[in-house]
Amino acid sequence: MDVSKLSRRHVLLGGAAGAAALTVGAPAAWSLPGAGAARRAGVFSLGVASGDPLPDGFVLWTRLAADPLADDGMGGMPGKTLPVQWEVAEDENFTRVVRRGEAQAAPELGHSVHVELEGLRPGRDYFYRFRAQGELSPAGRTRTAPMPGAMGELHMAFASCAQYEHGYFTAYRHLGDERPDLVLHLGDYQYEYQAGDYEIPGGNVRDHVGPETETLANYRQRHAQYKTDADLQHAHAAAPWVVVWDDHEVDNNWADEVYEHPEEPQPNFLERRKAAFQAYYENMPLRRAQVPQGIDLRLFRRVEWGSLATFHMLDTRQYRDDQVGDDEFPTQDPARLDPKRSLTGAEQERWLLQGLRSSRARWDVLGQQVMFAEIDYLNGEEKAYNPDAWDGYVGSRKRVIEGWKQAGTRNPVVLTGDVHTHWANEIHDGENVVATELTATSITSGGDGSADLTDEEKAYLAENPHVKLYNNQRGYISTKITEDNLEATYKVLPHVSKPNAEAQTLATFTIQDGTPGLNRA
């Protein structure tokens, strides 16, 4: 592999009429009018969503937009606050409504609505919808977390990296069809480029609207374009989501307050970051605790699923030191070994380690963005690593591994996105396997991909024997978690350049309680 100057963007492996509204008496809530079709009419053109479940509630979200692609980012809505009614029911026909209320959609928040429900029953499905301007929204299904101490079973799916231009969001539709209990999105929910700036071989299959996102209006418009996709709306309406970002929600490879190209600083980068954070909050089912404060937004947080699992959701972008070696991929820069370098920042690291010490969950799961396991990308005797992953922050990784050991973490599992390829990795501390990493490929980023490995890929996989699976197709990972094991099923699509591809099972792995490592089913 050539260790010449390359942008990681170009060398990522694999990177070379809307959801139908549910009306009373209409049980077929999950049918779609057509893959990728978008709701262009009505104020609920962006669909609905829910997220961050607790045992007694969750967040409900929608955003009013009669003209979602308006250049000013305001979705064709008037510059005044509008009332939005909401209701929650125990059945999808809304014959047993348990809560109703009214929220205010203010222009200062892009006419978005975030309703935080509490006082509901634990561990059960609920259905919700909104009404505004005389219109009824699509309906969504959501779920409360189990009561504290409960074990049971959890169906959780996770995904990342959905570049609108690179393909159709069919994988989201299949994910939604599974009707999981919980969905984790691990970053790169949207991409910042103007049309054609991130081109794949063979050409992009659809275009972004607007310029590269730099202003609040730009980011609002871009989020709206993604949200008009019916397959994405379908996945949001199927289950509660827990979201964290990576880089493209702001700008490729940004690091804390550092622009992608430190040698060419962007004078308005902090204003750009502030705008991106504001739009992210407006367009995600997040709680008041995540309201941005200027250029800051505290996204790291925990979601507990009874005593079965605790999800420690990390932000590996906002607090990191800049990438070593001028962010060249792969890197041999010894600065990556500096123990003072941090991927998470000191505060988040303390929060994580304290959470591991206090956790009583059967499974402690890190939901985060970049590859955790050590991966040598240079064939031959020499070694080289991805500076944008934990390999560029070896001290951070060592402290987390030591944290697992000191806390006696029973079943540490790392969930990862970012690299546009499926991986199944065993995480080592010396000779010992101490944890497991499940890495989901992209929804579309990188285009169709291929099930066939190149000779170069085969060679470096041979040099990384702790990698138990690698695949360069698009898809997501679906898991079933019980007190005895975690089962991970890798889903792939044969293509994303055309809609309606069928999802296929690539492989299934199990992790046994108390025994880190991967067992192929």
How would you summarize what this structure contains?
The protein is 16% helix and 27% strand. The chain is of the alpha+beta class.
CATH architecture of the largest domain: 4-Layer Sandwich
* Mean pLDDT rating: 92
What amount of the residues lies in strands? 25-35%
CATH level 1 name of the largest domain: Alpha Beta
Q: Which structural class do the helices and strands define?
A: alpha+beta
Total domains: 2
Indicate the percent of residues in helices: 10-25%
Give the key terms:
5-stranded antiparallel β-sheet, 14-stranded mixed β-sheet, 8 helices, alpha+beta, disordered N terminus, 521 residues, Purple Acid Phosphatase, chain A, domain 2, 2 domains, Immunoglobulin-like
Task: Give a structural overview.
This protein has eight helices and 22 strands. The protein is α+β, with helices and mostly antiparallel strands. The chain has two domains: 39-145, Sandwich (Immunoglobulin-like), CATH 2.60.40; 149-520, Alkaline phosphatase D (PhoD) (Purple Acid Phosphatase, chain A, domain 2, 4-Layer Sandwich), CATH 3.60.21. The radius of gyration is 22 Å and the shape is globular. InterPro entries: Metallo-depent_PP-like, PhoD-like_MPP, PhoD-like_sf, PhoD_N, Phospholipid_Metab_Enz, TAT_signal. This is Alkaline phosphatase D.
